[in-house]
Amino acid sequence: MNIREEYIKFFESKGHRQIPSAPVVPENDPSVLFNTAGMQPLVPYLMGKPHPYGTRLCDYQKCVRTNDLDEVGDLTHHTFFEMLGNWSLGDYFKDDSIAWSFEFLTEVLNIPVEKLAVTVFEGNEDIEFDEDSYNKWLSLGIEKNKIAKTKDDNFWIAGSSGPCGPDTEIFYFRSDDEVPNVFDPDDDRWVEIWNNVFMQYYKDENGVVTELPCKNVDTGMGLERITAVLEGVNDNYLSSIWKDVIEVIEKITMKKYSGNEKSMRIIADHLRTAVFIAADPAGIKPSNTDQGYILRRLIRRAIRHAKSLDVDINSNWDVIIADKIIDKYKTYYKELADNRKVILEVLSFEKVKFNRTLEKGLREFSKAISNLDGGIINRDIAFKLYDTYGFPIELTEELAFEKGLKVDVAGFAIKFKEHQEKSRVGAEHKFKGGLSGNSEIETKYHTATHLLNAALKVVVDPGCHQKGSNITPERMRFDFSCDHKLTSEEKEAVESLVNKWISEDLKVTQEEMSKEEAINSGAECMFIERYPDIVTVYSIGDISRELCGGPHVERTGVLGHFRIKKEEASSAGVRRIKAILE
Ligand code: SER
User: Fold this and answer.
1) Residue 170 Cα, ligand 1 centroid: separation in angstroms?
2) For 440-581, which CATH superfamily applies?
3) Is 469 in the pocket of ligand 1 (CB under 6 A)?
4) Which terminus in the chain has less CB density within 10 A, N or C?
5) What residue ranges of the chain are covered by domains with CATH 3.30.980.10?
6) What is the pLDDT of residues 492-513, one digit of tens each?
7) How far is CA 23 from CA 102, 284, 326, 482, in A?
8) Which stretch, 61-75, 254-268, 521-535, has highest mean pLDDT?
């Protein structure tokens, strides 16, 4: 059975509209590196903003969770997973939500009622016992002693602030033992398979809880887990989600899974996550910060484990595995096939880079531990492994752990910081890339960029298109397609048109819509494939309409005076304008 498709079909039959999975790197939320739950990209809508697809939504969402990265290698942990979810945005509430979950589990997945148990929110000083959910489960035939009331585990929030509410969790009895009469959520034989959150509150950064404008439902079911449960395997990697990837790894290594589980699971899991991160529209590349660092760690850890299984790292083992993963998922995530080349380049680039130093680093590690004092790898060794041999500190820790040793991680952190401070001097004056800054002046430059883009089309050629842009608090830079050097008349005309629009104090408006609608409505954009399926379109009066993540000013009047400082060639057929607001 294709659970993913059955799920969507079922919820569509209940009036839901499928929304596309958002990218794994959140679009407008710098506070998290990756989307970790299906609801994350929906936060603005849970807070009351109307969703362009209506009030009943369902999807399968790509999620990356790396807080348990070191746990990967056991039976159940993964760094990437898919979450099946359905949402009500101020539409249905507990009654339908619970009834449909029950119907899907018992009638579509054919799980016997006896194998199910649930938890409901017991209530606390602020929020009362969730009696409605309790009664609903009873009415559906879940026995009283299969409903546990808990406090701490039945209130869901992503992190420490945001939309939240009591939840009811559904458990499945995964064991050949006889199902006990009384449900104990702490008994490991019961595994949680689905969570229905009734999001009616908002908790702010100070912990103050208020009612949301609407009562919402947010549910989430991990595809990996439900698949393993239904297929009756305890080891997720033996389920149909992983089996064929593991078989490819067995072939490459010429070793059996049995006896080599840990390394094979790590290779399978980490490469799958790396493939999805590398395919993301955010264009993440391995680096030493943020998402790039996670990507680097994943690839390097996979390489290290492949090496421990005697794989010739220089062979194309990683390409074969990545190809398998891409083929397996491309029907559901088109970006994998579209970006196959980029994904394979990311993997091979990082492999070549790491492989150059891996061998030497491992030798350095062995040498260091052979004359070690007191079982602790000191900060200098850890830093040398990082700086000279490219060993992420977590890799050194893992190697140390395997030898029963520890690493002075705190000392490493101090050294790392000192090193960073040294390298920051000199880098300080470098410009920040892309449309990333959100200061007041940078925000003004974002809007000025749209005006300039529109003016060039009017003055120079309607076929001028944006080819790139970069903003710093000091200036804006704008690259556009054009076959000639701008004449001084053209430059002056562009300047005065932009200044005319500024003086007209045009209103800047923002709308969300599907990418398709945006394109059909004539909105301009630079790299259509880099945008998610739901996009934000910014319009300025009726002179400009562009897909953009913002931020922008509310009215053009605040921009001041626009002046072109320089117009020059950037590359063949591309010109570059540097301009300022003064
Ligand atoms: N947000 C909830 C969870 O992640 C339900 O989707 O468990």
Assistant:
1) 12
2) Threonyl-trna Synthetase; Chain A, domain 2 (3.30.980.10)
3) no
4) C
5) 440-581
6) 999 999 999 999 999 999 888 8
7) 30, 12, 16, 32
8) 254-268
